[in-house]
Design a protein that fits this description.
With about 325 residues, the chain is an alpha+beta fold. The chain has helices at about 100-110, 265-280, 290-295, 300-315, 320-325; strands spanning about 5-10, 15-20, 25-30, 30, 35, 40, 45, 55-60, 70-75, 80-85, 90-95, 120-125, 145-150, 160, 165-170, 175-180, 185-195, 195-205, 210-215, 225-230, 235-240. Helix 3 (about 290-295) runs antiparallel to helix 4 (about 300-315) and helix 4 (about 300-315) packs antiparallel against helix 5. The longest helix is centred in the last third of the chain and has 13 residues, at about 265-280.
Length: about 325
């Protein structure tokens, strides 16, 4: 999607960190405080904003219990959102060439006339890129996902394919915004501070009619709010709470290089390490020493025998296949 200096990534509110490809590096998010992609962002830089990213950069959400990811242009008040079940589609990624000379040059090469862009990317059955997991014979994997434009809600706090909600504290006011992807009637919108009802209204929302409600923030603890929208059958359609259940999330560790085969304690880990190196097509590590070490420890290890034999067979190394299986 085309972007400018007013573009901001819309990651779910529980995303506190991002990984790069293969989880080789990690950064806090949205405020980066260390070095990421060789850029020093200390003492604190908002890397959710395109204008603050000077070099080509990928960032993938480190886990989320929400079903959406997207981006928003604050100047045009328009955005794009992806919605999918996070249990099946956990991957939430954005990529940019960066807001520097190098990135601007590549944007010119790869686009027609609408300038810089950011790639909104999503992953099903995986939370990172690359992922080359195998699919078994006759196996099927299916999923449903929605890409949809929206307007005026800004930094979405929760979303379904039908409703998007925002809740902000701005300039001494608490502001609720809600957008619907189709006509929605007789919706009950409530905002509570613990057990105290602040808003309880019936509303109709549509793509043309955005729900906006403001109230003064005086005497209200913004970190104790619960927003809820119910349908005309009183079923809960969407909720969002500012009450945090995890105040001190630690930054996850980046991926570590595989141990040498002799340093791995058991055959299960040896086989799984070799399989992982095969699946991810590692550029510098070979799976062969891991399978060989497993077979040195236990020549009857079926999985490592099959894996090593298949490795040689795919490469036409038939003599090695015979040696692996003890064939004459």
């Amino acid at each position: 999607m085309s972007v400018g200096d007013h573009y901001q990534s819309v990651f779910p509110p529980d995303v506190h960190a991002v990984f790069d490809h293969g989880k080789r590096d990690v950064s806090s998010f949205p405020i980066a405080t260390g070095t990421y992609y060789k850029v020093d962002y200390s003492p604190g830089t908002d890397i959710s904003r395109y204008k603050n990213i000077p070099v080509p950069t990928s960032y993938m959400a480190v886990g989320s219990d929400y079903n959406f990811v997207g981006g928003y242009e604050h100047d045009t008040k328009a955005g794009m959102l992806h919605v999918a079940d996070h249990h099946i589609s956990p991957g939430k990624k954005q990529w940019t060439w960066g807001n520097g000379d190098f990135g601007v040059a590549w944007d010119r090469n790869l686009t027609d006339a609408d300038g810089p862009y950011i790639e909104l990317m999503t992953g099903v059955y995986t939370d990172n890129q690359p992922d080359f997991a195998w699919i078994m014979p006759y196996e099927e994997k299916s999923f449903t996902q929605y890409f949809m434009p929206y307007r005026e809600v800004g930094m979405v706090k929760n979303a379904t394919k039908d409703l998007l909600v925002g809740l902000e504290e701005e300039g001494g006011k608490i502001i609720i915004r809600a957008f619907a992807t189709s006509d929605q009637f007789n919706l009950t919108i409530t905002l509570k501070e613990k057990d105290r009802i602040l808003i309880d209204e019936i509303a109709a929302i549509s793509p043309e009619v955005i729900f906006v409600k403001e109230l003064t923030s005086d005497g209200i603890d913004f970190n104790e709010l619960i927003l809820k929208i119910k349908g005309n059958k009183k079923d809960v359609l969407i909720t969002y709470s500012t009450i945090s259940t995890d105040q001190n999330k630690e930054l996850p560790q980046e991926a570590k290089p595989a141990l040498q085969p002799s340093d791995i304690s058991n055959n299960e880990e040896l086989f799984l390490t070799g399989q992982h190196l095969e699946q991810y097509r590692h550029a510098t590590y070979s799976p062969v020493p891991y399978y060989q070490e497993a077979l040195f420890r236990d020549p009857t290890d079926l999985r490592s025998n099959n894996a090593l034999g298949a490795w040689y067979l795919r490469r036409g190394s038939f003599l090695r296949v015979s040696h692996t299986f003890g064939l004459q």
